[in-house]
Design goal:
The chain has about 50 residues and is an all-alpha fold. The chain is built from one helix and no strands. The protein is rod-shaped, with a radius of gyration of 22 Å.
Length: about 50
C-alpha cells in the first residue's frame, strides 16, 4: 500500500510539473515581450518622425 501511495505522489508531482513549467515559460515570454515592446514603440516613433 505504501508503494502505491508513493507512485501516486510521484505521478501527481510529475503531472503538476508538466502543467506548471510550461506556464512559467509562457509567463516569462509574455513579460519579455512586454518589456521589449516599449523599445519597439520608440523605434516606430523615430521612424514616423523621419
Amino acid at each position: 500500500m505504501k508503494a502505491l501511495k508513493t507512485v501516486a505522489v510521484a505521478l501527481g508531482i510529475t503531472l503538476a510539473a508538466l502543467i506548471v513549467i510550461p506556464l512559467i515559460v509562457l509567463a516569462g515570454l509574455f513579460v519579455w515581450l512586454k518589456v521589449t515592446e516599449e523599445d519597439d514603440d520608440l523605434l516606430d516613433i523615430d521612424r514616423e518622425g523621419v
